[in-house]
Give the backbone structure.
Amino acid sequence: MRWENLTADVADSSVRDAALFGADAVTSRTFDTPEFRGITFHEIRARSIVNRVPGASRMPFEWTVNPYRGCSHACVYCFARKTHSYLDLDTGLGFDSQIVVKVNAPELLRRQLASRRWHGEHIAMGTNVDCYQRAEGRYRLMPGIIAALRDHANPFSILTKGTLILRDLDLLKQASEVTDVGISVSVGFTDTELWRTVEPGTPAPERRLDVVRALTDHGIGCGVLMAPVIPFLSDHPAQLRATVRAVAASGATSVTPLVLHLRPGAREWFMAWLEHHHPHLVRRYERLYAEGAYAPKWYQRRITRQVHDLAQEYGIGPTRAGMPRRIAVPEPADAPAPGPTQLTLL
């Protein structure tokens, strides 16, 4: 494994040339329990935890925190698979079972947030691999991360397929009282047969929608990223309707569709899965994605229009993925008399 060559995903070459951690800082562990059987955890002490998104990225945010690399969710389409090749690890089964854990993420984040060079910009989490994947149940990195963001009143958002986020409900409520907190749950479809083969390590779609319902019931607005919409497998009008209807019933504040994209690393793994499970679709995919990683614009617009029309019908609307949502804070019962106001950036 090329631990020394693992560098930050940033535009600055001077930062990019510095390894995130050294080989002597890696401890590999396996646990003989049912939930972790077959998984190896590589515990490392990272040198940096707040990463700048490359300028060419389509992401609507500039900074991310990713406490893990690799993901036991094992989604066959995951675009982050390519990142495992930087470690000379396999982007297929290796991505699903060789998990890098940045065990010092909370303390490192707290130190970076306290730096004079940090100006309180929005931080997105769960945008590369899921920060609430199975490993989080053992390593418990997110409570310290959320607490650091709360203590510095730093805006943040979380995207997840994991139900474990409910463990940190109290911390999320505390953070929402002092800063902008955005939560989105990823539910691309509600077809259980498709879920079992394409997202085998994730909670079922209905369990994820239970998360949306629970967060909403506790006053934390939660949107749904309807991702991915998988061409020819989850894009039939009846399937889109069933998914949006279920999203609306969960109380989601928004639904935003995102069509499957197949970057190098993910593309090879997904196409091998397609060949095995749906061989009659291989040629159709080769034609649809002939121009690159993204489906044609006409197809993306068609899906977006259909989902937005359904969302309007069911009383929910779109939002921009990764954007924070302000949580309303109730006024105290005995508010003090108005006085001088100090302006704040938050």
User: Anything to note?
Assistant: The chain has twelve helices and eleven strands. Confidence is low (pLDDT under 50) at residues 4-20, 320-346. The radius of gyration is 20 Å.
